[in-house]
Amino acid sequence: MDLSSWPDQARPLVPRIISFIDNSLANRRHESFETLALDIFQFQREHDPVARALCPHLPRTFADIPSIPVDLFKELPVGTVPQGAAAAQFMTSGTTATRRGIHRMRSTFLYEYNAKRWANTCVPDLPKDAVSLLLDPTAHPESSLSHMISVLAENGTASWHLPDGQVDVDQFTAQLHGKDSPTLVATTAFALADLLKTGKVFSLPAPSVVLVTGGFKGRKTEVSEDALFQQTERMFPGARIVTEYGMTELSSQLWGEPGLPFRPPPWLKVIACDPSSGKRLSTGETGQLRFYDLANLDCAVSIETMDAGYCTTSGAVVLQGRLLDASPRGCSLTVEEARQKKGAL
Predict the structure, then answer these.
(1) Predicted model pTM
(2) Domain range holding 301?
């Protein structure tokens, strides 16, 4: 673990975060989430003018840490990494006509470490051979989703079949034809909906996995979730279907399965709040979602989304779309925007 990327104050935090991840997954004793969250925020507050402006005094509990709205990432350089000093820079979806939020990282180590640990906890037999309806990260290094899939493939192989946001059905089909090893098919909901229109069937060796992320809420193209997954089961018979929820502004992801809540890792806490008052809501009450992510060291430990949902007694998250009047966002925008551009030509 090379700590040289981080300033002196952050260096002791990195092994503490790693220790929290490892010990929580092994059900061993570890320091409290609150203590570590507050220490991370103290570092962020001293190195990020945005965090300092939102919180003139240090909070007493992790729930008191001010959450940075995702839209603010489009307006200000949120985070502790100065512009021009980032080793990696992920950007939210958007077009050249719209501003895009930016998540700068001094190092992708924590992002990659926690992503692999949680993915392999949720799907222990996750294949390392990935065939994706996603942007190629060599051409689009700003895509956090593509970066995550390339990390999960580790020493396996990964291919990308979404050039310019358009599904390349022929190349995707050719890549899957005759597969003799378990395969991870990673796709956004929009790209998957386009693929389903072909009516093709892919018989993949067990235990292959189809990972679906993103949704349709707030967009012109909309398919019911039940119909999407029923058709996916027919297209990929025998493959396990899993769902993933993440955001460019965060470093951790939530995993789930069709019809089930999303499971956050132990180092990511989610709460629902009243969007008007900001008051924390009780378990089962729908509100605006806030995320407290211990792996988000370089950026912001607390993020406020425009997503609506509620938390279960186990801490899992049930998404219920976007808040009223919230601007559409997410990885699936790439596909719809490309589709709209093509129609305008």
Answers:
(1) 0.90
(2) 22-85+261-329
